[in-house]
Amino acid sequence: MARKYDYLVIGAGVAGMSFALKVAQKARVALICKTSLEEANTFLAQGGVASVTDTAVDDFDKHIKDTMIAGDWLSDPKAVEIVVKNAPEGIRFLLDNGVDFDRREDGSFDLHREGGHSEFRILHHADNTGAEIQTSLIEAVRANPDIDIYENHFAVEIITQHHLGRIVTRRTPDITCYGAYILDEATGRVETFLARATIMATGGVGAVYTTTTNPLIATGDGIAMAYRAKGTVSDMEFIQFHPTALYHPGDRPSFLITEAMRGYGAVLRNLDGTEFMQKYDPRLSLAPRDIVARAIDSEMKLHGTDHVYLDVTHKDPDETRRHFPNIYEKCLSLGIDITKDMIPVAPAAHYLCGGIKVDSNGESSIKRLYAIGECSCTGLHGGNRLASNSLIEAVVYADAAARHSLEAIQGYDFREDVPEWNDEGTAHPEEMVLITQSAKEVNQIMGYYVGIVRSDLRLKRAWNRLDILYEETEKLFKVSKPTRELCELRNVINVAYLIMRQAMERKESRGLHFTIDHPHPEIHDK
Questions:
Q1: pLDDT (tens digit, 9 = 90+) per residue, 409-429?
Q2: Which among 289, 368, 484, 490 is annotated as catalytic?
């Protein structure tokens, strides 16, 4: 028996929960979470949320220009304007839902500045802003009687005309989403969830790489599902590597050393203690992330090292501990006192600028399917995300999608002829080692061939290796009962393929996509 909801929200980070809270007063909502509500990318965000609040020195035009410059002028100006101008309203929404941003003694926000920003405009809660936002929204969601929360439920596929026996191609003009097939991990059964509108808020793709700051559940599920349903996915080549993840071999995910620490005055140094950023950019350690990540990658290759250092020892120790309590504690647990010792850091896969292509209402190319948060491609980030623009983008587009869909769903009915999931003739995968080994192979392929620096030859090699893994995994999926591990592997391979293919298609070095075979073009519209 199918479950029916006005809204099916897949993913429970800041985007999914913000959306659910905005529509819950007027509709019934199912919130699908593949683990627990606490385990989301949002939870790990340290830096903060970008918004113009100090209008005495800052304004929308400055924030817009900073975003366009960081995005290498590939950002959609309309999307940039939507996010920047609606950011203060998004901050109010977070405050109304219990988020506590740090303030000065006079009550004004204690603003940070991060790489690429021309002014201090980052609202934060110490160095664990994401955790503060996530826990506040969890409290609000759990208290809302109109939101049914399904933890440990995994979305396997979205339901379209394809499941009703119709041939659907990328040229089919009216592909429509009627809900999703959801795996209940406790029972192993795949249940049918029907919805007037489905919202994809499944987060990022960091787990495609071995070294990542993302939780290992960031397997690009929503993007893979939308792509398999013939939805438009774009800008996947723009993977942001955070320049400064704590280097501690064996840790996966890697612990993030927030960019705010460089805004605070930390300096990047080689293992012999020499500074190097002056060789790469006049903004030194505060250059945008793509430049800093490539600089560190270059220095590591030049000196044959596997990390560099971030040095904050010249700053006041008490102030450092007060600003970065979590980083201080984490490093201390590994024998590093950041007030006296330099911090070993290396780049790690951090954020996806592309994803499911959406319009200004957050609606995808598939009717009745919206995408918000990191799994979406609004056009805001262009070739490279400006620091701390992502959490606010999630809130602003959750609001846009809520307003648009509340009006639109009045004309949508449930599709009653959707068949139940058919797993006849399938069995549980016998050898889990095949799945785990294939996942490791994807990680290695992406790290070696589709990393910070790329080439035509490396991308071609990735294509050939991924093709074999794709064929093997699809065969296994067809004869197996769905498990979360198998579905995640399938999604990781789909996403890796999209990153690699769209990287091959971009014949220029632009933003986060840097290839030794194609130079950066002259940009004349600055």
A1: 989 999 999 999 987 777 776
A2: 289
